[in-house]
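Sample log: Probable arginine--tRNA ligase, mitochondrial.
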Amino acid sequence: MAACSFRRSIASQLSKVLDLPPENLIKAISAVPVSKKRHVADFQLSIASIAEDGSSNCLTENLQLQAQKLAERLKCDAVVSEISAGPGTVNFTINRELLAKTVLQQVLKDGSEYGVKSELFSTVPRQKAVIEFSSPNIAKKFHIGHLRSTIIGNFIANLKVALGHEVTRINYLGDWGMQFGLLGVGFQLFGNREKLKSSPLQHLFEVYVEINKAAEDEGTKKLAKDFFRRMEEHDEQTLSLWKQFRDFSIEEYIRIYERLGVHFDEYSGESFYQEKSQEVLKMLEDKGLLQKTTKGTGIVDLSEKKDLSSFSTVMRSDGTSLYITRQ
């Protein structure tokens, strides 16, 4: 690409002056970030990167002097319009007419792949990468916090793909937990199936608000706990309602992602690890690590002296899992 051809041209001239192979100099020539506040060069060579005794042993004054002397020995040509010395660097400004012409020609030639065909990336080892991002809680509206994660995650995934890596994009949903026991009971009390189909997230939000008000009553709390317990016991009717919440939520999220130009290879979530969490609890019990409190909750002692000064709660008193058990 354009930047590489400019680097090669600068390296070629430096090679003749310094009597070093151009290949050794190309990586030492870096692009200078654009500044809105002041005029800066386009490329610079760090004197310390080519000094024989290494930058750690060179005095700043000596580096400055070497930069000045090297700049004086170099000449402007059809590619470089200005050469100057900086604090331990030699700076190069590219001919503006040539720069504009070269960049535009390269953009037209490479299209959407412009910027990623650099020879500097050719040595980057290709890897497999899993990028997990966005991760909203189902049955809740997509908010600004999710937007931030979505944009950043998608940028990282696109960057990895552009560099030739094999990328898997995962949306790890918050789709399991006691809140769905509350939402399930709420829908049974306040839900409307037509509204669920036409505007799922808005309607589920309205239901969630109503059931949270009702949850001040102990009887409603018990109903929610029973609903979540039936979820973990794989009760068919209970899971059917939960699955509707999940499916309608994902459909709504996909519409938002399409507007943002974002896609995922897989929609996973806490529910995927629900059965495995029971396996973890069984393993802890078999190893004698799972202890029961007087209230019936399951805990694991994390203290060095085994005096319960530090512990983690991993199971509710009714045997259902917690967030930490599903992670």
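Observation: Residues 178-272 form one domain.
Observation: The chain has twelve helices and ten strands.
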